[in-house]
Amino acid sequence: MSNNATQLIHSIPVDPLTGAIAVPIYQTSTFVQDAPGVNKGYDYARTGNPTRGTLEQVIAQLENGHTGIAFSSGLAAIDAVLKLLESGDEILAVDDIYGGAFRLFTHIYRKFGITVNYTDTTRIENVFNAVTAKTKLIWIETPTNPTLKISDIEAIAGIARANHCLLCVDNTFASPALQQPLLLGADLVVHSATKYLGGHSDLIAGLVVTREKELGEKIKFIQNASGAILSPFDSWLVIRGIETLHLRIKQHGINAQVVAEFLTTHPDVENVYYPGLKTHFNHGIAARQAKGFGGIVSFTLKNDTEKAATSFVTSTRYFKLAESLGGVKSLLCHPAQMTHKSIPAEQRRAAGVADSLIRLSVGLEEVSDLVHDLDRAFTSLHSTPSKNKTVTA
């Protein structure tokens, strides 16, 4: 099935009961039954809800998977995937990993006997060499958060199959509008739907999509048993966001390309990380496995200090300093102090997250205004703050 704007819009069904063009919000906790166990498809809203069910069907179609499952956050979605594992299993994970995932892997699941080995998955030989007989799950983000590393999904899927382990791809940064890992051989896809799928910085949500029915049934069981479900209203918000996903992600990418190219020319910038740049390592793989390069750009300052980064991120006007990404308004953050603070500094730096690395979520404003905003922030790095004057009465 082609994944274009027409398919996306018409994957959201008209309400069969009333003909409503918008999906109804079924804000209910339970459903009346005709007799014990005899109902209209729903009995209790943790187990199933029509609004959430519509979202789950829509995301499964967009990712060309069999089953979609919606959770109360992106981390709840990741947690559900990890619950497929048993004590003694190993995870092979990308080294440049989201800080929340690292915290979950390390501080929650390690004590249950599940270990994690980290490697640079941008080089396929690293993955091949790091897989062991105990590896049951390969976990990648591509692009990664925050250094935008690109891994070859199809090649890694081949390694996973050969070693009888699962491949899960965090597809948050690309979204199904640009990249569909299940078609490249991945077993599972996860999303923080808080980001591009929701698109308006007004909800928290997570999604899992499985390629096969059996795996989907396992995740669905975990969703119901653990209870971290997405509410009907937030499900509706994600559906509404998905309706404009293709339009938004296209403009995000156009703006991000301009911003990235501007950053490459600035004398205060050391490195720019954006898959759309031809100088980016694995740019060719990104161009082959995705339809675009997304709206996230990261860069490091030549003055590689936390102080310089703090000065920069507190000097912008349109780029708002905040956690998260993927909304219509531009955001920026300092991962070392914010999103990736839970990762030990030495490990963080080894993965490429320098002390001065700044992550931009390029929004939908006029791109000339965004470039000017960044240029002003660079200028502020060299300005001397005025000394406090003593006033005598």
List keywords for this structure.
Aspartate Aminotransferase, domain 2; Aspartate Aminotransferase, domain 1; 2 domains; seven-stranded mixed beta sheet; 15% strand
Q: Could you describe the 3D structure shown?
A:
It is a single chain. With 393 residues, the protein is an alpha/beta fold. It folds into two domains: 5-242, Aspartate Aminotransferase, domain 2, CATH 3.40.640.10; 246-380, Aspartate Aminotransferase, domain 1 (Alpha-Beta Complex). It has 13 helices and twelve strands. The protein has helices at 5-10, 50-62, 74-82, 99-109, 124-130, 153-162, 213-226, 232-242, 245-264, 283-289, 306-313, 345-350, 367-380, and strands at residues 67-71, 90-94, 115-119, 135-141, 166-170, 188-192, 206-210, 269-273, 296-301, 320-321, 331-333, 358-361. The strands form two sheets. Strands 1-7-6-5-4-2-3 form a seven-stranded mixed β-sheet, sandwiched between helices. Helix 2 runs parallel beside helix 8 and helix 3 (74-82) crosses helix 4 (99-109). The longest helix has 20 residues, at 245-264. The termini are far apart. Mean pLDDT is 94; it is low at 386-393.
Can you give me a brief rundown of this structure?
The protein contains 13 helices and twelve strands.
